Amino acid sequence: MRKIAFVYPGQGAQKCGMGKDFYDIFPIAKKVFDRADEILDISVTDLCFNENEYLHQTAYTQPALVTTCLAITAVLKEKGIQPDVTAGLSLGEYAAIATAGGFSTEEAIKMVRARGIFMEEAVPDGKGAMAAVLGMEVVQLEKVLSKIEGVYIANYNCPGQIVITGLKESVDKACEALKNVGCKRCLPLKVSGPFHSPYLKGAGKKLGEFMEKTELHELEIPYVTNVTAEYVEDIGATKDLLVRQVASSVKWIQSVEKMIAEGVDTFVEIGPGKTLAGFIKKINPDVKVINISQVEDLDILMEDYNVAG
Q1: Least C-beta-crowded within 10 Å: which of 21, 188, 297, 304?
Q2: Catalytic option among 196, 248, 255, 293
């Protein structure tokens, strides 16, 4: 019997027009977008569907991307496609928890709007930075970083791609040091802060306070947390994990390996782009990965699901 994981991308996957075809065709997807417009102080539909200057700003990106992912998920569930486990890369973990039943779509959207604001406020613009390190072994990279104050590992994305984070001068220094020991490339990321570093602990604290008024529900299925790369089956652990997640490393490689070890053989990436599909194939080329970012992608999934489901 196959095991399916729904996985959700993080910040950086967003693009103008995302989710528009689902909005136009499926009433259940339209309902998710329209509800987001109602409960937030911004128009998520405008953010997602029309050219604007805000989509790539953290406080706006986060609710826009999560809304899109959950709107697409609603369509999949309506068609009878259910996951056995969920996971998400950083921001994507909120869509994963909502899909697992841990909180409502509305609560997820409200939380990530607040999370984005807290993260933007945590460190002044220009003080923090992030960079993708390509072509380095983890052990060697960690050894270099251990000698440089103010820089940390943000994401274990896939073999050969690790993201570092921290103070801008420290990240720049680390990139130079890594190039000197064989790093293929060190690419600066277009972000507004040193995400997944200790400098975001203040944002995590504010998020924890915000979550005091968030209604949590017992999980219907497990999700895998970025913080420990372990299955979470008790919703009671979720608040602390999400608070820690803001400032801790995203263990995506370890999360995917954990799901595969638990029998997952099919990953359905939900949302714009194919970033996670690329990561997963590098982690384990033998598993099946299907991306659902456009309505036409549904045909591939439905055909596969009906044959093997």
Answers
A1: 188
A2: 196
pLDDT value for 308: 53
| 90 noted as active-site residue | yes
Other C-beta atoms within 10 Å of 237: how many? 15
Q: What are the structure tokens assigned to 156, written together?
A: 């274990």
Question: Residue 229 has what pLDDT?
Answer: 98
Average pLDDT, the chain: 95
Taking 60 as the threshold, does the pLDDT of residue 309 lie above it? no
Structural domain boundaries enclosing 257: 4-122+198-308
Q: Which residue has the tokens 């008790």?
A: 234
Q: Are residues 232 and 139 in the same domain?
A: no
Pairing of strands 288-292, 266-270: parallel
**Angstrom distances, CA of residue 287 to CA of 81, 191, 259, 272:** 18, 31, 11, 20
Torsion of CA 220, 212, 30, 277, to 10 degrees: -60
The model scores a pTM over 0.90 = yes
Same domain, 158 and 210: no
Task: State the catalytic residue, choosing from 90, 170, 197, 248.
Answer: 90
Query: Are residues 166 and 117 part of one domain?
Result: no
